[in-house]
Request: fold
Amino acid sequence: MTKVATRFAPSPTGPLHIGGVRTALFNWLFSKNNKGTFHLRIEDTDKERSKKEYQNQIIKSLRWIGIQYDGEEYIQSTKIKKHVDVANELLKSGNAYKCYCSSEEIDEQKKRARQKKIPYVYDRKWRDKKDSDAPKDIKPVIRFKSKIDGTSVLKDLVQGDVEIDNNTIEDFIILRNDGTPTYNLSASVDDHQMNMTHIIRGDDHKINTFKQIQIYQAMKWELPSFAHIPLIHTIEGKKLSKRDKASTLDDYSKIGIMPDALRNYLLRLGWSYKDKEIFTLDESIKHFNLEGIGKSPSKLDMSRILSMNEHYIKNIDENDLFKQLTEYCKLYKSEIKSDKKDKIKKSLSFLKNKAKTLEDIFNNGQYIIVDEINFNQDDIKLIDEKAKKVISDFNTQFASIDKLSKEKLEPIVNKLIKSNDTNFKGVGQPLRIALTGSKFGPGIYDIIISLGKEEVTKRLTNKKLG
Reply:
C-alpha cells in the first residue's frame, strides 16, 4: 500500500488565514494518523502579489500552532519548466490546443453571457481548427480539451459522490500567452511530482478538482483521493475572508490566545469524535479521521475560542503557563522584570482566576509588574478620612507580622472591622486601592502576600493617598 502523503499549498499573497490553518491542520493530522508525510508547498507563481514576508508569516504561523511539515518547503516557482513540459505533452497528445482568440473576443463572449444571465463558458472556437488557420500576429494561449459529453463523478471522501455534466467545464487555459502556467496545471503537476495520495482542501476548490482530474487522466497518472472540507463562515453566516477581523493567527496571539487552545478549537470546528471536546496533541492524531468532518459550513465563534482558552489557562501546568505569559509580555506588552518574575509565578494560581486570555492575566498582575502604581482617579476619591484611618491602623499592626499568611492577616482585618465600626468591604476596599490603584482586583489577602512585606509598607505610606 502507498504511504499516505498530504500537502498544504498556500499562496504567499497575504497573511495566512484562519481557514487555511484549519485546512493545514486537517491535512497534517490525517497524515500523522496514517503514519504518512505532510508537506508545505508555497504556490508563489503570482510574481506581482507574492511576497517573501507572507511566506515567512505562513511558516511562522504553522510553527506557532504546532504543525510541522516534512522536509523542505516545496517552492512552486522553481518547478515551472516541468509544468510547461506537461502542457506541451498534452498539446502533442491532442488533449490540449492553441487558442488565438483576442482578449476583445473573450470580453465580447463574457458580455453576451452576462446579458443572457448565464455563466460564461468559452465557445471552443479554436478546439478543432488547423494550425494553418492561425493568425501570425497573435500569441496563443494553450487550452485543455475538456470532455464535452456525459458526466463525471468525484468520489469525495467528505461530501460523498459528486456528479456534474462534463459540458459545464470549459476548455480552461493551462498556459497563458506569455508561456506561464495557470493554477490548475501547476497544482496537478506538482501534486503528481510530489506523489500526493490525498488532496484535502476547501470545498470552493470542487470545480478545480474536476479540471485537475481530467489533466491526471489525460497524462495517465494515478489519481489521488480527494476530500473537500466545508468553508468557515463568520458568525453572521458569511464566507470568512482575509479582510475579516481576527482572520490571522497574529490576531489571536496578540490578545493572548494560546496555540494549543486555538488548535483544539480549530480541530473541533467542523470535525467531531464522539462527544469529546478537549484533545491533547496525541489524542488529536490518534482520533482524527475524514469521516468525522461535517458537510455544512462552520461558524467562527470568538466566545467559544475564549472559553476554550480559559479551559487551557485553568488546566495547564503553571510552569508552562508562566513561560507562555512571559513570552507573550515580551512580544506584545513589556518584558516582565527579573525581580518581579518570581512574584508573578507564585501568584498565578489566583491571577489566572476568570482569565480568558494571557492578556487578562497580564492585566490582573499589573499591580505586581509596575514599579509605581497609577491610581484610578474615581477610585482614589473613595479614600476619605475613614479610609485613611483604616489604612494607617492596618499599617501599624501589619508591622509586627514576621511571616505573611492569610492566618496572620485575618485577625488584623477582623479587629479593624470592629474598631472602625465597618464591614469587610470597608477595610478591604481602601487597602486594595492603596495597594493596586483600583477597587477591582484579586482578593486582598492574595494581593498582600503576593507583594511582600516591604512593598506593602511602601505602598501604604504613599504620599498620593494624602
Summary: The first strand starts at residue 5 and ends at 8. The longest helix spans residues 18-33.
